Amino acid sequence: MYVVKIGGSLLTNKDGYCAPNREMVRQYASLIAKEWDRLSGNLILIVGGGSYGNAVPIRYNLKDASLPWREQDLSMMTVKMFEWLSLVTEIFREEGVPCYPFQTSGYVITDDKHPLRYFIEPVQHVLETNVLPVFSGDLVFDLSRKFTIFSSDNIPELFVERMRLTRVVMMTDVEGVMRFDQDGHERTLIPTVTKENFREVLLCTGPSRKQDITGGMKNKLEALLRLAERGVEGVITSGSDPEALLPALFDERPAGTFIRPWVNNMRRQKADVDCVFGM
Ligand SMILES: Nc1ncnc2c1ncn2[C@@H]1O[C@H](COP(=O)(O)OP(=O)(O)OP(=O)(O)O)[C@@H](O)[C@H]1O
Ligand SMILES: C=C(C)CCOP(=O)(O)O
């Protein structure tokens, strides 16, 4: 099973308000349509929040339940997110990819931002039907915080216990995880993240330079590190050319930053997991 997250920085104008880049969505849809025989039943798609997921909570004070939000606005994150998921589903359908959108607050409950209970069985049915499951972040209900904003970067971890994930690819608006020189001008790509260097690489990551409330590159890398210690390969790479998707999914050493797992997925059992990062 492969999971690809296409960043909101690619599929929307991230500094706007609910401003989709329909042409980019269509290009990804058409590429996946061409490869559908190979991908159907093996691929889960996640779309980033972009100017939906990161702008709506600011407009309606829903970034955090401690803010003065209004009850009549509680629905707005989910309504707008599902508008975005529906648009993606519609474009994929027009291009010949059968999709099914999942609304995240309907199947996940968190406690202090961490997923506590979630129901993945319907996703397995969608995959068995050779339909592409499509996910996004959302406002989700939280036992200790009332609600929280759940990033699309954290969706892949919901599948790891139930499915044998091979690789999770995150396509975004930079080449991968970059290291900046001291005056912040020169930057070089970090090609590989391992059990040995992940602490140092994490120090290079930070928030997004665009409108973003979920932690930018840092949250992305942390999510992929937790997956690495469950035996899942991770890739962070540029998706400004949608043609980069297939090599990112299938090449042994894809462009961008490769996060090499430090347990063997094939033999992985709970007790085997060598957790040095966070699970
Ligand atoms: N070390 C780093 N290397 C590369 N980018 C970094 C680094 N640290 C922070 N960033 C920022 O992280 C951004 C990518 O994260 P961001 O969450 O904005 O992307 P996305 O996943 O495409 O969007 P969305 O979260 O809306 O889906 C980059 O554009 C950059 O501004
Ligand atoms: C999508 C929501 C609700 C939050 C933001 O999501 P992300 O930009 O995909 O991390």
Automatic annotation (TrEMBL):
GO molecular function: isopentenyl phosphate kinase activity; kinase activity
EC number: 2.7.4.26
Domain Aspartate/glutamate/uridylate kinase: 2-237
ATP-binding among keywords: yes
Catalytic activity: isopentenyl phosphate + ATP = isopentenyl diphosphate + ADP
Taxonomy, superkingdom: Bacteria
Signal peptide: none
Keywords from the UniProt entry: ATP-binding, Isoprene biosynthesis, Kinase, Nucleotide-binding, Transferase
Keyword Kinase applies: yes
Family from the record: Belongs to the isopentenyl phosphate kinase family.
Official protein name in the record: Isopentenyl phosphate kinase
Organism lineage: Bacteria, Bacillati, Bacillota, Bacilli, Bacillales
